[in-house]
Write a structure and sequence with these properties.
Layout lengths: L1 E2 L13 H14 L9 E6 L1 H9 L27 E5 L11 E4 L2 E9 L5 H10 L2 E4 L7 H12 L3 E4 L3 H9 L5 E6 L25 E10 L5 E10 L2
Parallel strand pairs: 1-8, 2-3, 2-7, 3-5, 5-6
Antiparallel strand pairs: 4-5, 8-10, 9-10
Bound molecules: NADP nicotinamide-adenine-dinucleotide phosphate.
NADP nicotinamide-adenine-dinucleotide phosphate (NAP) binds next to strand 1, helix 2 and helix 5.
Pathway: Cofactor biosynthesis; riboflavin biosynthesis
Keywords: NADP, Oxidoreductase
Pfam family, one: RibD_C
Length: 235
């Protein structure tokens, strides 16, 4: 994740020259050709992150009369160099193509659905060549999602790419080993803006949690790269 000096992950600071330089450093570490994290095949993002950045709250173009799709998961592109694992429990995202571009990285879209996603939505994904994995029945089973991503797409690690809601769910579920932050030397002071971790009462509760600093580096643009392991809940 990249975040502002005041812990915010969204805001006007992002589009400034300082914000963009820091985001380029972040991208290089996570996804660039000389990246630090080399053992992953993509990153996970929550539904709101995808709406805000890629599908822009479009309604999916469903064929309600579509024939029943086969049960189970669907792998359209098994060997893409990079994948965008899109958490979308009910199948709501209005995709129009099967890849996204983020800086100079192209990533195949893999939807991570629960049993609530409709036949018509899965039919749309198949028509678009978008892979999907089903994890959980009424709610998404995060541990099963991680297992299925590893089993179907490989990779020794998996990047957790936000937003704050999804990040906190992974911390609370004990599914996050490392927190890696590019701290941008900027802030905009927006009250209430999304932070790195946000409990969402539909999914999680707040809980004091400790992290153990492993490394700190100053990057070329003046950002700090901080790496922590997750210690866990504290009294
Ligand atoms: N600076 C950065 O590095 C960075 C990175 C990523 C995102 N962002 C920003 O973060 C903002 C979005 O963050 P957000 O916290 O509002 O949303 P989010 O984490 O992107 O997505 C949350 C959604 O994911 C789905 N979800 C399913 N199971 C979940 C679970 N167990 N826990 C949490 N979510 C679950 C839910 O969708 P349903 O509502 O369909 O159930 C939930 O509403 C965006 O504006 C984005 O641009 C910044």
């Amino acid at each position: 994740m990249h975040m502002s000096l005041d812990g915010k992950i969204v805001g006007d600071y992002l589009a400034t020259s300082v914000g963009m330089a820091s985001q380029r450093e972040f991208h290089a570490l996570a996804y660039g050709p000389q990246r630090h994290y080399r053992s992953h095949k993509g990153w996970l993002s929550g539904r709101i992150t995808t709406e805000d950045n890629f599908t822009h709250y479009r309604t999916p173009d469903l064929n309600k009369a579509a024939a029943a799709v086969p049960d189970g998961d669907y792998i359209a592109v098994p060997d893409a160099p990079m994948n965008y694992f899109s958490i979308d429990p009910a199948g709501q995202l209005g995709w129009q193509k099967n890849s996204i571009d983020y800086f100079d990285t192209n990533a195949h879209v893999v939807e991570v659905l629960s049993g609530k996603a409709s036949n018509a939505y899965k039919d749309l994904l198949r028509r678009l060549g978008i892979s999907y994995l089903i994890a959980g029945d009424d709610t998404l089973d995060l541990a099963q999602a991680v297992e299925k991503i590893g089993a179907n797409f490989g990779g020794e690690e998996l990047m957790l790419g936000g937003g704050g809601g999804l990040n906190w769910s992974f911390i609370r579920a004990g599914l996050c080993d490392e927190v890696s932050i590019v701290l941008t030397p900027a802030a905009d002071g927006t009250k209430g803006a999304q932070t790195l971790f946000e409990a969402d009462d539909r999914y999680t509760t707040p809980l004091p949690t400790a992290f153990d600093l492993q490394d700190i580096q100053k990057l070329d643009d003046g950002s700090l790269w901080l790496r922590y392991t997750v210690t866990g809940p504290i009294n």
